[in-house]
Design goal:
This protein has a domain of 229 residues. The chain is 71% helix and 9% strand. It has four helices and five strands. The strands form two sheets. Strands 3-4-5 form a three-stranded antiparallel sheet, with helices on one face. A two-stranded antiparallel ribbon has the order 1-2. The longest helix is centred in the middle third of the chain and has 178 residues. The chain is rod-shaped and about 230 Å long.
Length: 379
């Protein structure tokens, strides 16, 4: 059982104790007061003529006292006993001089605790007590009227002179004033009853408000508990992910350390290679400059060789052309001799020398009277 349910159980039990105790207390007090009033008023109804004469001789009777008890309410916080004394019914007596005393008990400070009870349980005892008090008041009013009538009738029978009539009239006025006082007390009691009813309604409204607040707070507590459970689950999941990420971070840190050492080693190797590359570049530039010099010298040498060979080729080609012309003339003469007749031969030659790459082509054309010879030579 939770703390809230325990408090509610204690509150309900204390409220039941309060209701039953209050009801019994009010009923016992009311019955005692009614019995006292009846016991005091009964001798008045049964008074005889002798008593009337004695009263006339001993002057007007007076009311000895009239006590009005105010409602005293004592409440104890936490559901303890709650005692309320209703206003007592006035006690009337006809002994001694007429005097009115109104003793008011000092009202103690009212300490009330909002008790969680149902509206029906609070209103039921008040409703029953109000009905009971109203019936008692109505009965007392009827008795008062009957007593007044009986007294008047009896007094009319025994009273002869004007003094007795005046006495009866004064007594009637007194009874009427007492009746008015009772009416005022009745109105005050009704006002108190209405006040108690309004207080009961206020308590019921506060009870409903408290019940609504309790339901609201319980729903909020359930929602917050659900949120706490979800947050705890989320926290556990995040912790697990955090641990996994920490493990991965350590692995990455180890890999980064290895890669850093490898990078340093490779950077050192790169520096060495850069030095070697600079040396090779320097050697290449030296070799390139030397090679260009050698190539230039070789080109110069080969160019001079080409010129020499070109001159030699021209000379050889000239000699070859001359030999070719002589050969052509000899062939022509040989042909003429073969035919048995001697003809005059006129030889005309033309030479064309063409050089393409390393190949030289020579074209020679010869023409005689009546014949034409075309030859090509390649070397």
């Amino acid at each position: 059982m939770s703390d809230f349910q325990t408090k509610q159980y204690v509150t309900q039990s204390s409220q039941r104790q309060y209701t039953s105790g209050f009801k019994d207390n009010v009923r016992s007090i009311t019955q005692d007061r009614v019995e006292q009033v009846i016991s005091r008023e009964t001798p008045k109804v049964q008074t005889t003529t002798v008593e009337v004469e004695q009263r006339s001789a001993t002057k007007l009777p007076r009311m000895q006292s009239q006590q009005v008890l105010r409602t005293q309410t004592q409440g104890f916080v936490g559901g303890q006993s709650y005692i309320s004394n209703m206003a007592a019914i006035p006690q009337i007596g006809y002994q001694g001089n007429y005097s009115v005393q109104q003793n008011c008990v000092a009202a103690q400070p009212l300490c009330m605790n909002v008790i969680v009870v149902s509206k029906e349980e609070i209103e039921a005892p008040w409703r029953l007590e109000c009905e009971y008090l109203q019936s008692v008041i109505a009965e007392l009013e009827k008795r008062k009227e009957v007593q007044v009538v009986e007294k008047v009738v009896e007094k009319e029978k025994v009273v002869v002179d004007n003094s007795q009539v005046q006495f009866l009239e004064s007594q009637l006025r007194q009874l009427r004033s007492e009746n008015d006082q009772l009416q005022l007390q009745l109105q005050s009691m009704r006002g108190e009853i209405q006040l108690r009813s309004s207080q009961t309604e206020d308590l019921a409204a506060k009870e409903r408000e408290f019940y609504n607040l309790r339901i609201k707070f319980e729903s909020q507590i359930q929602d917050l508990e659900g949120q706490i459970r979800r947050l705890q689950e989320e926290n556990g999941r995040l912790r697990k992910e955090n641990n996994d990420l920490l493990l991965k971070l350590r692995d990455y840190e180890n890999k980064i350390a290895m890669l850093s050492s490898e990078i340093e080693r490779l950077a050192y190797s790169i520096k060495i290679k850069d030095g070697d590359l600079e040396d090779l570049r320097f050697r290449y530039e030296q070799l390139e400059s030397q090679g260009q010099t050698v190539i230039q010298e070789k080109v110069t040498y080969l160019s001079s060789e080409v010129e020499v060979w070109k001159q030699k080729f021209i000379k050889v080609n000239h000699d070859y052309n001359e030999c070719q012309e002589e050969l052509t003339m000899c062939q022509a003469e040989l042909e003429a001799l073969r035919k048995g007749q001697k003809k005059e031969v006129v030889v005309s030659t033309s030479k064309v020398v063409t050089r393409t790459g390393g190949t030289t082509t020579t074209s020679s054309m010869g023409q005689t009277r009546g014949s034409r010879i075309y030859e090509q030579f390649q070397s």
